[in-house]
Structures are given as structure tokens and as C-alpha cells.
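If your schedule permits, I should be very grateful for your opinion on a structural question. Thank you for your consideration; the sequence and its C-alpha cells are set out here:

===
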Amino acid sequence: MWLLPSRPGAVDSGLEAWPDLPLPGVRPALGAAAAYAAFCCEHWEVYRRYAGVVTGDPATGEQAARAAFGELRAQWSTALRSPAPSALAWRLLGATTALSRTLTMRTLQLTLDSRQVDALVLHHRLGLSAQQAGYAMGITPTAFELLRRNALRRAATFQHVSHMPPSDAP
């Protein structure tokens, strides 16, 4: 059995929601399954919250994050051979949220690169530091900060900012 909890909101209750994880103090078996389990534990909350913001609905966001983690599981051996498994996971999350994004997110993506929009969401909506957000996206904190600053610089030149809908994310 793979790791995503079977009931909504289960992750918020702690590690007991992840039955495949070893008990604290017990050394886990090494290998791809253990690496995937660790990845899920480390990234689930940020990915779920991010998806909830960009879709405008926590339940839809959770479904999208689950779908991304399911696809990541299928591609895990490829992810492990890559320089940054988080980068692949982040692309998968972007793909699973693409069709459900709010009007605000779609409007931003008309002017900004999708990774720039992601940087703004992670920092300004979720309150993540450059280190935390870069880790989630599979990039360095410096690369994240460059994305975020370029997004802010480009957003300052928007001609259509006054026509953007009010935030429709929770």
C-alpha cells in the first residue's frame, strides 16, 4: 500500500494517518519505497495547500495533489535518477491543477511564466521562505528568489491589474 491517507484531512492529524511509515526511532528499510514515503511526508502539506489556493477549493486541491503524487509514484524511479525529484513532482502538480485553476491564476498566467506565478503563490499566499518554496519546487532558494522578484517586477507593469477579479482562492 502506498502512502497517501485514505480519508480527507487525515494528514493534518499527524503520522498515524500514514500507516506505511515506521514508528519514530525505527530505522526504515532503504530503497525506493522508503524514499517515496519520505518525499510524501516532506512535501504533502505544501503541495496540498498550494493546490487548494490555485484551484480556489481545498477539496479540489487535495484531489489534484493526490493525483500528482499518484503520477509521481508511477515515475518515481525516473525522479530518483534526476538531479531534483521535487522538480518533477512540481511539474506533475502543475499539470494536475492546470484545468482547475481559478480565474485569477489563469489571468496571472497570461502575463507571467507559470513558475513565476507559483513563486508568488508560495511566498505571498502560503507564506513560505525562499528556502522552503525552492525546496518544494525543486530549485535553489536563489533561483526561487529570482523567480519571485522577476514576477513582482513584471506584475508592476501589468496594464490589466485593475481588471483582475478579486482573489477567488481561500
